[in-house]
Amino acid sequence: MPDLDALLLARIQFAFTVSFHFIFPAFSIGLASYLMVLEGLWLKTGEQRYLDLFRFWLKIFAVAFAMGVVSGIVMSYQFGTNWAVFSDKAGPVIGPLMAYEVLTAFFLEAGFLGVMLFGMKKVGKGLHFAATCMVAVGTFISAFWILSVNSWMQTPAGFVMGANGQFLPGESWWDIVFNPSFPYRLLHTVTAAYLTTAFVVGGVGAWHLLKDRTQRHARTMFSMAMWMAAVVAPVQIVLGDLHGLNTLEHQPAKVMAMEGHFESHPDGAPLILFGIPDSEAGEVKYSIEIPKASSLILKHDLNAPLAGLDTVPPEDRPPVGIVFWSFRVMVGIGMLMLAIGLWSLFARWRGRLYEWRWLHRAALVMAPSGFVAVIAGWITTEVGRQPWTVYGLLRTSDSASPLDAPAVASSLAAFVVVYFAVFGAGVWYILKLMADGVQTGESGPATGVAGPIRAAGITPASQAASDGEPREQGEVER
């Protein structure tokens, strides 16, 4: 395999680890907010089903959060090992932003996570709900800073170039943080996380409805998830369109690859639905097209001209095949999500939301669709940025550490083995919890005797004896 040089292996390793890592934040961002809603509904209504659902999803959140933290820590080391030149040149800008993420978000999440997981019977209801809210806010703040870093790499702004070639902060950090693509990417990504969680919750609810359509917890989960799908899926499509228009303005070559436009179209570009991109021939073979529809979507004008990759130097073009198909996977899943949401609205209107088995089967099949969509979206974003790490300013080939291919290959092999073993077990446990379902009225420690259950010098038996109850023969006090 002579083509697998150190640079390509380093790219594969980062792609593998970041794809594996993002699965868990994409789930925990939405799930933290869902837990906040469940606990809020329980406090407002006093209904036991909301508390049962909160406790059920809290266990799953704990496992997903832990796996996200571990995979994220491992991923960050690659900036120093495989991408040392990038870290040196871009560190003055991205380093503080990533530090802000730790200081404002990770510490917030970690600080209140313990109260959220173990403090329901140790603190008041209001304080526990506040802790749940802080964890949800922390996940959003974490996404805020990480997406600001990534967006700056896509649309760099607010910097000056140092004499040594480093990117240095300019007069205002706000120009760096709120770079041109950041608001669009933040909204699009966080909304995708909410949809991802909604379809997981809906899939679990559908699974248990297929086994017993009268199960109250399953009905609640499924109804809440379908409301989210029906409301948020259309919003996500609009946000995706706005994000695409912003990308066309700042990264036109990426949009050209997404659309498969090898040639410029001066009088309206077609929308290529499917085909096989051939970069060497400069065409999409066997294409199925809608005339002028791409100009209508991107320029809101059927006859608007659109430039093609023939206007971009060959060395600056992204890999068209990967970007072309990953974009279609993302958009296709988004349309399926919209279809499920509309189907659920029709079923709700007909009073058959919990009766239509085919809707439940479809929701079950779509349960992992959000993960596939967000990974496809990130592949579109990151591969479409190539051949740059800092778009238009720092090439990927100039960002890597001076390592030999065997060194990178061995660490990549270790990552693959460890990730699939450790995180495979974690995913299996999450799926087992989901399949087991919600336990009604889970209780805490037994409180059958007065006073503390465990304390220095006191056991339940000795406590009972002090209250006048006989001890069992042979019992020994501590």
UniProtKB/TrEMBL annotation:
One of its GO terms (cellular component) is plasma membrane. Pfam families: Cyt_bd_oxida_I. GO terms for molecular function: electron transfer activity; heme binding; metal ion binding; oxidoreductase activity, acting on diphenols and related substances as donors, oxygen as acceptor. Residues 468-478 have a biased composition (Basic and acidic residues). Its main location: membrane. It is a multi-pass membrane protein. It is an enzyme of class 1 (oxidoreductase). The chain crosses the membrane at residues 12-35, 56-77, 97-119, 126-147, 186-210, 222-239, 322-346, 358-379, 407-431. GO terms for biological process: aerobic electron transport chain. Residues 458-478 are annotated as: Disordered. InterPro entries: Cyt-d_ubiquinol_oxidase_su_1 (IPR002585). This is Cytochrome bd-I ubiquinol oxidase subunit 1. It comes from Tsuneonella dongtanensis. The lineage of its organism: Bacteria, Pseudomonadati, Pseudomonadota, Alphaproteobacteria, Sphingomonadales.
